[in-house]
Amino acid sequence: MTDPRWLDADGRPLDEEDRGLVYDVRTLVARRRVLGLFGGVGAAALLAACGSDDSSATPSSSSTPTATTDSGASGGDLTEVPDETGGPYPGDGSNGVDVLDDSGIVRSDIRSSFGSSTTTAEGVPLTIRLTVRDAATGRALSGAAVYLWHCTADGSYSLYSPGVENENFLRGVQETDSSGTVQFTSVFPGCYSGRWPHIHFEVYGGVDDAVSSGPIVKTSQIALPQEACEAVYATGGYEASVPNLAGTSLTQDMVFGDDGGIHQLASMSGDADDGYVAALTIGV
């Protein structure tokens, strides 16, 4: 039976080339599984035969991430992360300004603006570590790209909010490594009225897609744990976040409220004095 995602409006199967990037990724995973049965050099030779005719080509960012097997892969117990709104301040060209085509957007430390400004966003240090996996198999997707952005300690978004329209801090793109992981150095976001503390992200097939308005594989959000939020907001610079956090909850949030953010709630380590590390595995 054909997966309903690969059917057109009349219920007819779409041609393979029209099924999108997720279908392409899962097809690649299946092909690599078959090749694995042959083992060793034979599998490598078969895979090479399916690739470019130019044997001297060097690896580069690609619109098709590579599914890799590692000790953390676990098929069958990974749920695809829910699709969510990118919000009104994406900076990806869908609502005005597009920062993704600016030189300098591919970076791991997103605390400072780049280009004409070098202003640095202040706040409690936060390292954000995301691992992208194929939800169907659990295998890590290397060579994919993650565009990540979030608000400042006082709840403002660069490129949009009054006073920071000319800044582009707290935005960046990273390519997933061999374990499907990206890591960003940032600051803990504040809590503004009407929303639970969160971080936005988009997953692309590769860096080339991310910086050239290519297709988006997944748009979603990360929820931050209440205990860490309360500890951070008790420090200087986050005063406005205290009443805003007290006035909402995960179950009331417009994005996370349907399931309490069960698939989007980051695991957190660290403290408000030395900073936190937020980690989440993203199934796509």
Question: What's the topology here?
Answer:
Layout: H1 21-38, H2 40-49, E1 66-68, E2 125-133, E3 140-142, E4 145-149, E5 171-175, E6 181-187, E7 198-204, H3 207-210, E8 216-223, H4 226-233, H5 241-246, E9 267-271, E10 275-283
Parallel strand pairs: 2-10
Antiparallel strand pairs: 1-3, 2-6, 4-5, 4-7, 7-8, 9-10
Helix pairs in contact: 1-2
Describe the structure.
The protein is of the alpha+beta class. It has two domains: 4-58, no CATH class; 125-283, Aromatic compound dioxygenase (Protocatechuate 3,4-Dioxygenase, subunit A, Sandwich), CATH 2.60.130.10. The protein is 16% helix and 21% strand. It has helices spanning 21-38, 40-49, 207-210, 226-233, 241-246, and strands at 66-68, 125-133, 140-142, 145-149, 171-175, 181-187, 198-204, 216-223, 267-271, 275-283. A four-stranded mixed β-sheet has the order 6-2-10-9, with helices on one face. Strands 5-4-7-8 form a four-stranded antiparallel β-sheet. This is 3,4-dioxygenase subunit beta.
Question: How far apart are the termini?
Answer: 21 Å
| CATH topology assignment of the largest domain | Protocatechuate 3,4-Dioxygenase, subunit A
Largest sheet: 4 strands, mixed
Strand content: 15-25%
CATH superfamily of the largest domain: Aromatic compound dioxygenase
Q: How does CATH name the architecture of the largest domain?
A: Sandwich
Number of H/I helices = 5
Instruction: Strand order, main sheet: write it out.
Output: 6-2-10-9
| Mean pLDDT across all amino acids | 83
The helicity comes to: 10-25%
| Strand/helix succession | HHEEEEEEEHEHHEE
Q: Determine Rg (CA atoms, Å).
A: 20 Å
Q: Tell me the number of strands.
A: 10
The backbone outline, from C-alpha atoms, is globular
Number of domains: 2
> In terms of structural class, how would the helical and strand content be classed?
alpha+beta
Low-confidence residue ranges: 1-9, 25-62
The CATH class of the largest domain: Mainly Beta
